[in-house]
Amino acid sequence: MIEVDVWADVRCPWCWIGMRRLRRASALADQPVRVRRRSFLLEPEGPFSPGRSTAIVATNEWGLSPSQWVAKSTLIREAGSAEGLNVHADEALMFDSRPLHRLLKLAGESMKDDQLYEAWDDAFRSHFERVENLGDLAVLRGLASRWGLPHEEVERTLTGSRFETDVANDIAEARRLSFSSVPTVITKTGGRVSGSASVDELSRFLSESAVVK
Hints:
alpha+beta
């Protein structure tokens, strides 16, 4: 068994692309691959302009020129398309992803690995393909319903403090390990690679991890 931790934020398009690539690389591995999904926040204090489109924020708040953003969003769209994903980076809405991370932690309590993968994939699809506002609790409740999560537990998670510590611990661990970008894949022995690496690179990384174990 190859075990890896993957830090990601649903707001990050490369995390969706990387999740697909890692899944393809895992299928090529000589041993089963178990992925532990860890929370990361691109903006730990939440977005300055929730509900605004990424393109507007990128060119008004991040300091990118329109041409720079077009080049970046085109690269993301083409990389996503190569993995069978429709990534609408321009239209995707800014949102505070902490409640969604707590909801994904709830999902992780009862779901098997493949089911949890599908839940994360659905969350990414909601953000980048359906362009839903994941800062809206009603939208998050809709996700939870599709995932089959118990209503009472969903309400405790979204309106209370459940899993706040778990999310905070993931973020603290990322800080301790000294990385500030995602996706990042780390083995139990400390090996690491960018989750947005190519399938071939990820496959080699998993193979080397298997040799160590």
